Amino acid sequence: xxxxxxxxxxxxxxxxxxxxxxxxxxxxxxxxxxxxxxxxxxxxxxxxxxxxxxxxxxxxxxxxxxxxxxxxxxxxxxxxxxxxxxxxxxxxxxxxxxxxxxxxxxxxxxxxxxxxxxxxxxxxxxxxxxxxxxxxxxxxxxxxxxxxxxxxxxxxxxxxxxxxxxxxxxxxxxxxxxxxxxxxxxxxxxxxxxxxxxxxxxxxxxxxxxxxxxxxxxxxxxxxxxxxxxxxxxxxxxxxxxxxxxxxxxxxxxxxxxxxxxxxxxxxxxxxxxxxxxxxxxxxxxxxxxxxxxxxxxxxxxxxxxxxxxxxxxxxxxxxxxxxxxxxxxxxxxxxxxxxxxxxxxxxxxxxxxxxxxxxxxxxxxxxxxxxxxxxxxxxxxxxxxxxxxxxxxxxxxxxxxxxxxxxxxxxxxxxxxxxxxxxxxxxxxxxxxxxxxxxxxxxxxx
Length: 447
Fold this sequence. Notes:
Layout: E1 24-26, E2 32-34, E3 36-37, H1 48-57, H2 70-89, E4 97-101, H3 104-113, E5 120-124, H4 129-132, E6 139-143, H5 149-161, E7 169-174, H6 186-195, E8 199-203, H7 215-218, E9 222-226, E10 237-241, H8 244-248, E11 259-264, E12 270-274, H9 288-304, H10 306-325, E13 330-332, E14 345-350, H11 355-366, E15 368-369, E16 371-373, H12 378-384, E17 409-413, H13 420-436
Parallel strand pairs: 3-15, 5-6, 5-7, 7-8, 8-9
Antiparallel strand pairs: 1-2, 4-10, 9-10, 11-12, 13-14, 14-17, 16-17
Helix pairs in contact: 1-9, 2-9, 5-6, 10-13, 11-13
Cofactor: pyridoxal 5'-phosphate
Family: Belongs to the class-V pyridoxal-phosphate-dependent aminotransferase family. Csd subfamily.
Pfam families: Aminotran_5
């Protein structure tokens, strides 16, 4: 199930420098502490290397694909070189297209917009909303949460075999859960999809920052991910994969850049010839800084080597899971069980604590930033908590009182820039808060 090449060097490395590592935040007791950013799964801090590259380019900013001047030509070259860099990072095949978008959500909505008529989409209920919700123009089959990787493959195979009519089909699956961090059997799911004449898109938003993602090796048809998960600033994402559906569909957005030629007809209308390259779905002035930032992050991770990066992250994952397992009041959420391989994402609930209050206490008392709520994966979290599908609960802070059970969880997540001290502080804080009990949070300076 792992997508890590076992031949890669497993030497543990030091954390990579990231922005914000020296930020000091106030505590409820009036003191201050260096902020422990443990919410990488929402948005990872930008690598210092990426920020430096962007700052170095900024004075040379120019309009992409729009001018003959030096800065415009330089920016155009930089934009297209960034496309080539990201394509290499993803192992794109000859003939694949790579479209720069705004985010994973935008990428999957773009793919939804180019589906051939009659396409049936298969998606597990375990997906992030970015993968659950875009398919509004298609027939969608939602698959129940599997409890083993093998069950995931079997569930998909049966659903694909039973589909009628037998037309185009697309499977959408995550590479690593944004709730549990567990790795999914991507290669096996791709093989099942292809055996039944379906295509597969990999939501790599949580996978790409933690593991190498190779389209050819995984044998997926499309990959989508976001820059802000991959240690780059907000506002850019990627959809990469097979070109035929992208070329055949109407542009995702109509406008300059997508159009190759526009002419008036004698009857007063317009004739438009659209590009057949990635530009077809990149109308408007492209986000060259966002594309360059993603490319810079890809280069930084490649040069650091995923082997050492993964080895270090796995040591932190094991440390977190073993420490939480020794606290009886803490329940770690999992689909595939304690032996499942996972990236640096762990969600849990604490007996007697409302999850939003627990997260607030971590922040107010210890300067630790985590996430609480349903993580934009409401059906999955409800399943993991044993709640009914329509039970109340939403992303963010809840309104329950201290000591009441809430339909939400706490998520701690980390990556290549996380210092050991942040993880140790988090584990000490969890043990202390569980020992103290919920108490009057506001009296302690909580939010």
